[in-house]
Amino acid sequence: MVSVSCSTQDKSQIYQDIEYFSKVFNRERTYRIYFPEGYEKSGQNYPVIYYFHGWGGRAFKSGAKIEFEMLGKLVDKYQVILVMMDGNMEESEPRPYNIGYHQHMNYQVQIKDYFPELVSHIDSVYRTKTDRNSRAIIGFSMGGFMSFFLSGKYPQLVSSATDLSGSVEFYVGYPDDYTLYPLKYTFENLRDVRIRLHNSSDGELSALNREVKNGAEWDGDLSFEYWEFEGVHEIDDPGETMVFEKAMKFVTDGFKNPMPLKKQWSHYDLYANFNVWDYQVESEKKTPGFIYLKNVTPFGFGYYTKAWLPNGPSMDFATKISTAAIYEPNVAYHILDFNNSNKSFDATIQKADLSGRLSFEFTDSEHEIGIYRSGDNPIVRVIDYRINKNQKMLRVGQENTITLEMINLGELPSKTMEIELSIQSSDSMISVLDSTTTFTISQERLIDLKPIRIRCDKLPTNDGSPAEVRFKVGIAYDTLVFENDLVFPVFFDVAPFDSLNVDDGLMVKDSVFGIGNGDGRISPGEEIMIYHGNHRLQLYYDDPYIISERLNDEALPGKWKEDGITMSSVIKISESCPPGHQFELLGKYETKTYMPMFRGVHWGKVVFEVTKVP
Fold this sequence. Notes:
CATH architecture of the largest domain: 3-Layer(aba) Sandwich
CATH superfamily of the largest domain: Alpha/Beta hydrolase fold, catalytic domain
Largest sheet: 8 strands, mixed
Radius of gyration: 26 Å
Strand order of the largest sheet: 1-2-4-3-6-7-10-11
Low-confidence stretches: 1-12
Number of strands: 40
Number of domains: 4
């Protein structure tokens, strides 16, 4: 193992290339490290910036025209340690990080394991500030994707991140279990991280990164900056460091002015086992999808799973969750477990262990957990919603009535309490006609709430920006405020698609995805894919006779075919669906241009009737 002796380092070198033994890779790994002027004599500890390169890059070379010799001046100016991480998986493979499309998911080694190992190594060898408020990531292209992905996976380790014209979505994970991670839908992971996105005006990823920008603004609860510059897919022009310096200034400003942590957090994770904010999760997850810890506070949390984002179906597998050590050791707490899938309660008492942790086990998804002691306050959560009595999609061009299903997961009040509820959306095409209301709670766990009127005039998106509506729901009483996010799909006012074809086991294009009798018509019990001409459709619906869905993915042609993945649906029709039942669904398909890679989204209604019995 090679390391640097800080007291004898030759400062005439602008940087050093260091090898050390990585337990994660089980071999020597290289990183390039810069030290600020005065490091040898100051005796001070310094914040650390980690840089992630793009495709074909290494710790010691870059396709992004980085002026390695000039970065030393920036390191001196901002008084930081800069570590250029090597994302290479093996010498013969130019593609870094083990991320991409199906054919790229080849390695058991995961960068999500290597990054904290490298952080630990750097902190143990050099004089660093080891708190999260003194650590940041900057990344370019594929490394830009990693800057947001790793900062969101480890918000307890990273306080700031800058994505320099990054890729927008990749599969991430193991060869036998990997999941598509779309940045535009994962900003909940980054609400405690200061983030900045650089985007070129004319680069290959320009249009796709505008989708990511729109996703950040759609989330609406971030410390987020966006900068679009005139140029192509690069960091700086040759001989310049202006753009890289903007990224460094952003993260070092964060070092000087750390952002206070929010009172609650949520987290999506695609791995079966993970640790976030000292919550430890172990599961038997073996298929693509996400574990979702929702609205986590000392008063409880939601446990959900999603096959895809933002509104994929839930998945069932065994999961164990151990909380952070935030409770009084060996003290008993009331635990109220509400199973949202079957609307049942399970009330228990659990003592926190000697470290102050509580533990939970689940075998299915959709649980809301309340944690309280006798004499504590109620804990009010939104657990579900209904639109216009039995729908899940907002209808455009009309007034929708929204009924929020709510529950008290905490102490039952001794007398009736009045609660104030507010609901709002940042979408200018949404009008909340009852933005604030009051209701009461008493001795009942389930809470009745007067319907809320919402007018939706949203237009269909023409790119891959989030098409759903996000609402912020606030619940306030006494000095307590609980917050909930609700994401509603929208049934756009669009014309019907014509030329519909049905794959129910019938070859329509180049592959068969449906399962049925293959007659090209829709019958009860079949699994079907719908085509508009040659375009496979992704479907959106709230019809009770559609009982399950799986997705098929395709990489649309572009300069880099892995940037911009499109989905299509295979839906299952219930065996109990009556012949003659008419479905009205919303469908979309995507097209993509070559340069820049613009993802065009095309919407239409899908109307069909189940085959009648002769």
